[in-house]
Write a sequence for this structure.
């Protein structure tokens, strides 16, 4: 028989804003996960980034059409 070591889980230790580099509380993270289409210029790559609230506000301030708020 073989006994296997327990695989380390990929648990998040902390979140860091990709734009400003500051640490973010888990409940305030704006996360993007995007798998680009095979026919896009990124050819099926998966892109991921996290933003803090301040950087999120700066991003949406650049939108031509305001976001929808419930
Ligand atoms: Zn930030």
């Amino acid at each position: 028989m073989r006994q296997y070591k327990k695989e380390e889980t990929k648990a998040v230790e902390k979140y860091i804003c990709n734009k400003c580099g500051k640490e973010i509380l888990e409940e305030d993270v704006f996360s993007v996960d995007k798998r680009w289409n095979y026919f896009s210029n990124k050819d099926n790559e998966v892109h991921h980034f996290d933003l803090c609230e301040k950087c999120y506000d700066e991003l949406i301030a650049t939108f031509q059409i305001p976001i929808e708020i419930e």
Notes: The mean pLDDT is 92. The longest strand covers residues 30-35. The pocket of zinc ion is lined by residues 17, 19-20, 22, 51-52, 54-55 (CB under 6 Å). The CA atoms of residues 14 and 20 lie 15 Å apart.
